[in-house]
Specification:
The chain contains 6 helices and 16 strands. By secondary structure, the protein is an alpha/beta fold. The strands form 3 sheets. It has a 7-stranded mixed beta sheet, covered by helices on one side. A 7-stranded mixed beta sheet has the order 6-7-8-9-11-10-16, with helices on one face. Strands 12-13 form a two-stranded antiparallel sheet. A hairpin with a 4-residue loop joins β1 and β2. The longest helix has 15 residues.
Length: about 325
């Protein structure tokens, strides 16, 4: 489907993905440039150096003078052993926001316990920054008849809240959610949630929903559906390859203390996205490139879940050669 409202451009020299949008002239009068950092799937309970990775992210965001930072879920289990990691996160001097991921409840923790651990009042909420409205969703609802395993649903109560929130506000919108709304392995009623966003655009008469960001899949992906870009922020730490591909990427002593790492292909450097929203009509996504520690998933023969762009240790790799998959 051809998109007449946005154009997706590539800027090879700068290594920046540029998404253009055209807000009504009157709305740009109250908007300001917004800079923020995003990280996803740090997985403190898997990675031996999660504290250092998180600290590097915050240091970079401070240098870039980000207005706020956000972590997109699968952060850590709410337990005493992770207090030092939480302290690193809370060392940020400014606004910070949290998204609930499915692995944040590992070990039998409830969503309520995780939210309390990070000081979240609610799992889904909204906030304003520089004239832009951010909508945070919780994709961990469990509906009647859902299969066993991790919940991946946006429930009726939350969908009603989302509809009312969009109807009662007028600002440009950015959506944040852990499980993607477009991937078959993401939110199981993603199409239903996307329809609410598309209805908000239709009611506004312009592309008010600028973008939807997610994590969860440990992939660097961007899909446009009915004029809305859905962007997956890669994991800060690794790609999960599972038991059949387990191997040792680090020295034996690291694996002895952190046994889950053997099921991953780790990234040598922490990954994150730095996003700038220009009120003149551009979203610029600056990513980070890394390399594999040990063999890559491809070298291990891993193919399950591989998207068209492949599995890469990068964020916004398509900043160099942007290939947008259109909805059918």
């Amino acid at each position: 489907m051809k998109n007449t409202r946005r154009e997706f451009l590539k800027t090879a020299a700068a290594g920046v993905c540029v998404i253009s949008f055209r807000p009504p002239t009157k709305s740009t009068e109250t908007l300001k440039e917004l800079r923020f950092g995003m990280c996803a799937d740090v997985h403190k309970d898997v990675m031996h150096d999660a504290d250092e990775r998180l600290g590097a992210y915050l240091k970079c965001m401070a240098k870039k003078r980000a207005h706020f930072v956000v972590q997109m879920g699968d952060f850590c289990q709410p337990k005493a052993a992770n207090h030092s990691f939480r302290k690193v996160w809370q060392s940020w001097k400014g606004d910070q926001y949290n998204v609930v991921g499915n692995h944040d409840m590992d070990g039998g923790a409830s969503r309520e316990k995780f939210r309390k651990y990070l000081g979240m009042e609610d799992g889904y909420y909204t906030f304003l920054q520089q004239g832009y409205r951010f909508v945070v969703l919780d994709g961990n609802d469990r509906h009647k008849g859902a299969p066993s395993g991790y919940a991946r649903h946006v429930g009726e109560e939350q969908r009603t809240w989302l509809t009312k929130t969009l109807a009662s506000t007028t600002e440009p919108v950015v959506v944040l959610v852990h499980q993607s709304l477009e991937n078959a392995l993401g939110v199981d009623n993603g199409a239903e949630v996307r329809a609410i966003l598309e209805a908000a655009n239709k009611a506004a008469g312009w592309g008010r929903v600028l973008a939807c960001f997610s994590g969860h899949h440990h992939l660097d992906d961007l899909v446009e559906i009915n004029g809305i870009p859905y962007i997956q922020v890669n994991s800060m730490s690794y790609f999960w390859v599972g038991g059949s591909k387990k191997h040792e990427s680090y020295p034996a002593e690291v694996h002895a203390k952190h046994p889950w790492i053997q099921y991953t292909s780790p990234y040598a450097d922490p990954l994150w996205s730095f996003v700038t929203i220009d009120p003149k009509g551009e979203i610029r996504i600056e990513g980070v490139r890394s390399k594999w520690v040990g063999p890559s998933p491809e070298e291990l023969g891993y193919v399950e879940g591989k998207d068209e762009q492949g599995i890469t240790p990068n964020v916004s790799a398509r900043a160099v050669s942007l290939q947008i998959k259109k909805s059918k």
